[in-house]
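ARCHIVE CARD
CATEGORY: sequence design from structure
SOURCE FIELD: tokenized fold
FIELD CONTENT:
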């Protein structure tokens, strides 16, 4: 099992910054990708950013140039540095981890979510 604990959400003004953290525990040896998603009203969770164990990253177009995902494998922690925040970034952000069970089976884990509110 993998458990994900998120922190760092809060209230900021537009143009400000937040840093989200997510620490994994449990069967962490199997984790490959970690990332962040956000919940949009009336929609499924949206990909914000992901990072693999070797450091390959991918970002949603809406956050490129503003958000940076990073990872500390020694601490089993993924971070999302959120700069130049906009009101439309307001959402609940969820940490995600992909745990490789076999070459054909991957287990997906989710954190509890941390709320980010950006005021105009």
């Amino acid at each position: 099992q993998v458990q994900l604990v998120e922190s760092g959400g809060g209230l900021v003004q537009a143009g400000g910054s937040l840093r989200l953290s997510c620490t994994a525990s449990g069967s962490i040896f199997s984790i490959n990708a970690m990332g962040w998603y956000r919940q949009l009203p009336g929609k499924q969770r949206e990909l914000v950013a992901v990072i693999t164990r070797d450091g390959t990253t991918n970002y949603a177009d809406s956050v490129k140039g503003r958000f940076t995902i990073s990872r500390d494998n020694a601490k089993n922690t993924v971070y999302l540095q959120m700069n130049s925040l906009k009101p439309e970034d307001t959402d609940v952000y969820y940490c995600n981890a992909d745990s490789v069970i076999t070459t054909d089976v991957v287990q997906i884990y989710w954190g509890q979510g941390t709320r980010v509110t950006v005021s105009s």
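CARD ANNOTATION: The mean pLDDT is 94. DSSP finds no helices and eleven strands in the chain.
SHELF: design records, drawer C
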